[in-house]
Queue: 3 jobs
Job 1
Amino acid sequence: MSKILLMTDSGCDLGLERASQYGIKVLPLKYSFDGEHYFLDGIDQTVEEFYAMEKTMEDVPKTAQISPLEFEEAFEEAYKEGYDTVIYTSLSGKASGTCQNAVMMGNAVMAEHEGFRVEVIDSLSYSVLYGFAVIEGAKVLKAGGSAEDVIERIKKVCYSANAYFLTDDLTHLKKGGRINAATFAVANMLDIKPVLVLKDGLVEQGAKLRGSKNIYKKLVDAAKAMGDFSEGRVFTIHTCVHEKAAFLRNAISEQFPNIVIDDAVVGPTIGCHTGPDLFGIVYFAEKF
C-alpha cells in the first residue's frame, strides 16, 4: 500500500500546529527586515510580532525562497522515513522560484530512488487559498484516497479559489511596486482604494473603491460583481486586523445570512508584500 506524505510551504498560512493535526509537513520560507538577518516563517516570530515589527520599518521586508538543497533534504528525509510518494503544493510559481526549485529537486531525487515519486502542484495562489486546498487533500488521504485522488482534490480546490482584498494604507504597496507612483498620488488625493485580485497566479489591481464610508459593503459588492460566492466556501483574510475582518464578515452576512464565514490570518511571507493593514474576501467557487 502506498505511503503518501503531503508537503507544502509556510506561505499557505496553515501554521505548524494545524498542519501537524492533518499530517502535513510544512517547509518554512524566510523573510528579512534588513536583507542580512532572516527569520523562518512560522517559527521565529508569531504573526503578531511580525506585523508589530513591520509597522516600525521604513523599508519593505524581503522574502527568500526555499533553496534546492532544502528541498533535496526534505525529499530525501521522506524517502528514508518510508514514504513512496510526496505531494508538494507550492506558493504560486509565478511569484516565487520556490515551485521551480521543488520540481528540479523532485526530479533529481526521483532519479536516485526507483519507485519514489514527487508530485509538485503549483497552486497559482497564496495564503489560505492553497492552505485550505492542502487540508482538503489531507481529508481525502485520510479517507483512503489514492495519490491521484488527493492531487485531483488539491488542484480542484486551488483552481476554484478567488480573492478580493484591499488595504487602508497604500504606502506599502507603492514601496513594493504593486502600484505605481501616479496611482498612489491620485488614490490618496481622491481617497481611492484599489481592490487587489488574484488572476492567473498573480495579484493585480481590480475595481477601484472611492471613500472609506461603507467600505466593507463596497468590497463585498466588488467581489459579487466578479463572481457569485453565495454557494461556495467563504473566508475573511487579514493581517491581524481582527476588528476590520469582523466588520467585513458582518457586511457579508447582511447580504448572505446563511453563509458560514471562516477567518484566516495572513502570515509573514505574504504580509511582507501586502503590508500590515490588509483585509479581504476569499471564496471557493464550489462547496467543499
Job 2
Amino acid sequence: MRRQLDAPEAKPIIQLGISLIAVMSVVHVILATQFPQKILLLGLTWLLTTALIIYFCSSWLKKITKPIKIVTDQLRAARMGEVKYEMVLNNEGWFSGLYNEIFHYVRQTTSMRAEIERDREQLSQAITDIAHQLRTPIAVTENLLELVDETNLPKNKTILLEQNERLADLVAQLILLARVDTHTLGKAKQPIKLSNLLQKSLNYLLPTIADGKISLDYQVDSEIDISVNLALMQEALVNVLKNAFEHADQDTTVEIIARETPIAVILEVNNSGPTIAEEDFPHLFERFYRGENSAKNNLGVGLAITKGIMQASDGRIMLKNLPDGVQYQLEWFK
C-alpha cells in the first residue's frame, strides 16, 4: 500500500483528499466558534466526514490501481511465455480497451516469437541436411580424383562430370528447400498464360518423355492466366511433371488438363503407372522422404519444394490415386 501511495499517479488523489479535509476542518472550526454548544456534534461530524473522504479517496485509488495491476500481471505473464485473458475483466471502461489491446499485442508477439523459433530450428535442420547430402558426392569425387591416371582418364572424366552435375543440382535443390523452410521465397508475381509456362516446363523433360515412349494428352486452354513468380512456379511444375513422367509406365499416356472456375485455376496431371502406397501418403511432402516407388537418384525434396512454392503462390497441391495411376492436382486460388 505504501508503494501505491508513493506513486506519482496517486498524488493528485491524496492531495485532493487532504484539501477536502483541510477545507472541511476550517468550516468546522468556524462553526465551533459560532456555536460552542454544538462542539461535540461538530466534532463527530468532522470525524465522520473525514472518514468518508478517506474512504472515497482510497476506493478511487484502488479502482485505478487494480486495472493497472491486471495489465502489469498480463505483461509479466507474457514475458514468462503465458498468454491469458480473463473475460470478466472485459467491460466498457478505458482500461478494458487497454487490456484488450495489450492482449492482442501479446498474442501476436507470442505467435511471432514461436514462428521465429520454428524458422531458426528449420534453418538449422536445413543446414544439417545440406551438409549430409553433399558429403556423398564430394567423397565420390575425391576418391575418383585420387584414382585418375592416363589409362582411366576418359572414363573417370565422364563419371566426374556426372557427379559434378549431380552436385550442382543437389546444391540448387537444397538452397531452394532452405528458402521454402524459412519462408523467404520471392513474393513478386506477374501474370502469364498457364499454357506457356507448362510448355517451357515440358521442354526440360523431353528426354524423359522420349525414353519412356510416353504420349501426351494436352488439354490446356491457351487463354487461362495465373499470377505467379515465374522462376519458382516453373520449378514447381517441372517437379510435378517429372514425377508424373518418371512413374508412368512405358507406352502409356500422361494427361495434362486445366480448367478455370470462379474460385481457382485447376491443373490436373494424370499418369498410368504404380499407385502410391497408403503408408506413403502422410509423408509425401516431408523433406527427404522417399516412398517405395521412388526413383534411384531421387533426393526426396521435389514435392516438399513444390508445396512451399504453391503455398507462397496462394495455392495448393494434392495427390491421389487413380484406378491405374496417380493424379497430381495444383490449384491457384483467385
Job 3
Amino acid sequence: MNDLTFGWFLPTSGDTTCLANNDERIPQSPELFDDVVKAVDNGGYKYLLMPVNATCWEATVVASYYVAQTKNVAPLVALRSGYCNPTLSAKMYATLDQMSGGRLCINLIAGISDDDTLADGIADTKQVRYEKMDEEVSIMKRLWTSDKPIGFEGKHYRVNQVIEPKPLQQPHPPFFLGGGSEQAMDISAKHSSVHLFWGDKPDVIATKIKDMRGRAAKHGRGHVLQFGMRLQIICADTEIEAWDEAHRLIAGATQFNLINNKDGKAAVDGIRRTSEANQRVWKLLEESGDDMKIHPHLWTGISMVRAGAGIAVVGTPKQIAATLDEFVEAGCTSFCLSGYPHAKAARMFSQKVLPLFKSRLSDSLPTAA
C-alpha cells in the first residue's frame, strides 16, 4: 500500500553537531531555518514539525511564513491546550489551511511539565490541560462543519458561534498527538488522525497499537486511527561511521543536563512528575546498559541530554530502513524524524533512505479522521 508518510523537525531553538558542547551550537536564525526547510520541502517529506517551548521561535508565525516559501511540505503546528481560545484557534487553522492550499497538520500538545506552563502564566494542571484539549478539539471540529451557532457547553468552554472560513481539507486537517498517559491516549483515541509514539521497541509498539485500537473502537474509530513514530536518525554509509557519529554527538555529556530546556538539569524532576512519555524514554535509557541499545539499531544516548523524543535509529541506510520496517510491521504508517545537524541529516535520509520506501510512499498527508 502507498500509505507511508515521513516528516522532519525544524529546530527553532537552534541546532548542533555535539549536544554537550556549547561551542558546537548553531544559533537560531532565519538562515538556519531556511536551510532545513529547503532540504525538507525538496526531499520528499510530507510535513514539518514546529516545536514549542520557551526557547523556540513562535510556531504558528514560523509556519505561516514557510507556507509561503514552500511548495510541498505541510507545517505540523502545535495546538497548546489552554493557550488560545478555541474559536480563534479554529479560525487561525482554517485560514492557514485555505491559504496554504490544504497544507496543514495540527499537533495536540498538553505540555510535558506543569512548571513550564506555569512559567508561561498557565496555572492549569496537566489533567486540566487535557480536559481543555478534549473540549477545544470538539469545538473546532463542530465550528468547521456547522453553518449555525454550535451551542457548545462544556466544563471549561461555552461557545455559540459560527465561523468562516472552513478548512480546505475535509473534514478538517489531520490531528497528531504524542502522549503516554491514560488521559492522553484516551483523547488521542477520540480525536487524532495519527497517534505518535516516542521511540520504543517494535514489539512494545505493536502491543500499544493494539491497546489504542481498542480505545478508538469505543468511539467508532478502531480502524481509522493511524500510528506513527517520533524518532532521531543517525545515518552513515557504514555502520562503524554511524556509531562513531552517534558517540560524537553526546561526547562529554552529563546525564540529564537537558539541552532543549532552559532550566537544564533542574527541569528533570518536573518533567518526570508530569510526563509519562518521558518517564518511559528515560526508563529505556536506564535499562539500556553501557552501549545504550534497546535493539540492534535503536539507541537511547540522546535521551541523556534531551527531553522528549531521544531514541535514535543508528546505522546504514539499509539498516535504518529495515528498522523502520519493523515499526511498519507493528502498525505504524508515519515517521516524524529529526537528526543533527538537521539540514544535513534531512538530506542524507531523503537521498539514501527514502528511496528504499519509494513504492510505498503516500501522495498526500495522513487522512483526517
